[in-house]
Amino acid sequence: MKPRRLVFLGLGLAALVIAFAIVLNLMPGNAPGEQAQQGSTSGSSAGSTPASTDSGGGQSPTTKAGSGEAAGSPATAPSSGKQGAPAQSADPAKPLEVNTPAPQSTQLVLPTSAPQTALVSEPLPASADAVGKLAAGYPEAALPPMDGSKLTSSSVSPQGTILQTSLVASTASEPLAVKAYYQAHFAPLGFGTADAPASAGSTATWFTRGSDKITLTITPVQGGASYIVYGVLHAGK
Q1: Torsion sign (Cα): 179, 184, 189, 190
Q2: Burial (Cβ within 10 Å: 0-12, 13-18, ≥19) of residue 198
Q3: Are residues 33 and 124 in the same domain?
Q4: Choosing a second label site near 150 at 20 to 30 A (CA), which of 84, 101, 135, 194?
Q5: Which residues of 22-37 are buried (b: 16+ CB within 10 A; e: fewer)?
Q6: Is 89 part of any domain?
Q7: Beta partners for 235?
Q8: pLDDT tens-digit map of 168-177
Q9: Comparing C-alpha atoms, which of 217, 172, 155, 207 is closest to residue 186?
């Protein structure tokens, strides 16, 4: 009898334990669904704590990936729907650059100068030569000897409307003074100046204006310089 009583007593105690457990599970704060939800919430918060904190004080790999995606995308750029389309509004900080039109070229108008008169005019003189003085018909006003010069020879020779002239003289002035004298004489008449070939020891200068041409050759000598003035002049009407 005793073993059977012990079995029934054990079964009764087991039934009481099961009944007590059922009552505890059915209490308001311990519903199975709420316990599961609380368990999942606590689990997720516990799992997110290491993800948001890093030993170096930075963001977790998941957060860095998200921020990298945000950094790669433009912050406030307007979308026009077409790649390469211009912005809808101008940026006030960057004014638009507008190419100004090229200035129109202006032509420099020089004042008209007075017509140049010919150095000789028709009728031209006949051919002539002279020693120690100026030849007859020599154009002294156009091709004068330098002041204080000693005349050696002179000549004139007409050919059609062209008059060839020659003047040989000497002076106590230096060669540079002789050149400066004739430069000052021909410049107001509109003659240009250029160096010309000369023999050894001499210098030569061309004075040209249109078809007129004058050659000045200067040779230094003891006590000064000797010079030759040779002209090819075209007569005017």
Answers
A1: positive
A2: middle
A3: no
A4: 194
A5: eeeeeeeeeeeeeeee
A6: no
A7: 120
A8: 999 999 999 9
A9: 207
Ramachandran assignment for 160, one of left (phi > 0), alpha (psi -120 to 50 degrees), beta (any other): left
Q: Count up the domains in the chain and report the number.
A: 2
Q: Which residue has the tokens 């010079």?
A: 227
Asked if residue 42 is part of any domain, the answer here is: no
**Secondary structure of 130-190 in HEC code, one letter for each residue:** EECCCCCCCCCCCCCCCCCCEEEEEEEEEECCEEEEEEEEEECCCHHHHHHHHHHHHHHHC
Question: pLDDT band at 11, cuts 50/70/90?
Answer: confident
Q: How far apart are CA 218 and CA 215, in angstroms?
A: 10
Buried/exposed code over 200-213 (b: 16+ C-beta within 10 A; e: otherwise): eebbbbebbbeebb
The pLDDT tens digits for 189-232 are: 999 999 999 999 999 999 999 999 999 999 999 999 999 999 99
The HSE-up count of residue 111 (CA atoms within 13 Å, CB side) is 2
The 3-state DSSP class for residue 103 equals: coil
- 221 membership: H or E segment, kind and range: strand 212-221
Domain span at residue 27?
1-37
Angle at 143 between CA 117 and CA 159, to 5 degrees: 75
Rg (CA), the chain: 60
Residue 64 has pLDDT above 50, yes or no: no
| Average pLDDT over every residue of 23-27 | 61
Q: pTM for the complete prediction?
A: 0.53
- How many residues would you count in the chain? 237
The verdict on residue 76 lying in a domain is: no
Query: Would you call 209 helix, strand, or coil by DSSP?
Result: strand
